[in-house]
Amino acid sequence: MSGEKTEKPTAKKNKENRKEGKVPRSQDVGAWAALLLFAGTIPKLVGHEIGVLKDLMATCLSAAGEADIALALELLGRGLMHVLLALLLLGVGVMLVSVAGALAQGGFFLATKSLKPKLSKINPLAGFKRMFGMRLLWDGAKMLIKSGLVALLVWMSIKAMLPYVGGMVPMAAVIDGFKDNALGMIRNVALVGVVLAVADYGFQRHKTGKQTKMSKEDIKQEHKQSEGDPLLKGAIRSRQLAMARNRMMADIPTADVVLVNPTHFAVALKYDAEKGAPRVVARGAGVIAQTIREKANDAEVPLVRDVPLARALYHSTTVGQEIPVELFGAVAQVLAFVISRRTKGQRGGEHKSPRIDAPLPEISRPGRRNPSDHATAGR
């Protein structure tokens, strides 16, 4: 069925979907990735800061014998600076990872259309479907899986730390054991969270892909809107052809000669020694050729009957183009005849070709026909 949505969205549709916020995205990717970064960097960061604080503490103890407010404030400032710097580095790192996780799922975009008020957003039926649809089932299953795995990892960590409790274990070993187990637990939880977040992103991508599919009829309508209405384009094209034909007809009085077939083709030529070879100012076949002949008669432009030359010029030139080099000799004979009559004060009329009846040379590179001429010629 044409209404069935089975086709991938087009580039234009994808752009509209981004404006509407229909982009696959999981909110958990950035959060879990940031937690993983925290678990990986906190040991080194804390170790470095503990060393700095030990040095600072030793400095404070050595300065205790000489009570000085300025020195106390300086040491306090140094301590606060180290703490703030550590927190700042950790916060910036977490923020960058969170932003990178969001950008990796579709880049930066502004869902401007989703901000506009819509009646469908307050539709109780649509709200009921959102509450009890597939999304709710997936969120519930995801929450149960996350809770179960996190509880399992926490229990494993607590179980591993039980030997340190109530035994004759040195305090330093207890602290190190608790630290290693706690950091390992955080790291494992973060890894599980990242895996679940990737799975959630896959689900969101699949769901969004189904929601944004298009039917063949949708693609046809979009193509029609992009390309424009065929009827309107046809009307514009017809108007352009009419304007081009009118300009061509207006240039016929400036021509030196019109070569005719005598009824099928007509090609009007104008020769200007300063501009080089003769140029075509008008050409046509059928009804257009008849109109060219009538305009030429009204403007007293001579008509010369030369079947092969008129046909060759029609098929090898367009309006405004110079005649082919191969036809220079043949056209020169016709122009010489027309100019000699003009010097005697003779204008207009229809004449036989003064050209010697010899085959025309083959045209090696015929010019392209103008589509407007082709269209008008068939009218």
Automatic annotation (TrEMBL):
Coiled coil ranges: none
Key words of the record: Cell projection, Cilium, Flagellum, Membrane, Transmembrane, Transmembrane helix
Biased composition (Basic and acidic residues): 214-227
Entry keyword annotation includes Transmembrane: yes
Region (Disordered): 1-24, 209-229, 343-379
Matching InterPro entries: T3SS_substrate_exporter, T3SS_substrate_exporter_C
Gene3D superfamilies (alphabetical): 6.10.250.2080, secretion proteins EscU (3.40.1690.10)
Membrane spanning residue stretches: 29-47, 83-111, 144-165, 185-203
Keyword Oxidoreductase (UniProt): no
UniProt-recorded name of the protein: Flagellar biosynthesis protein FlhB
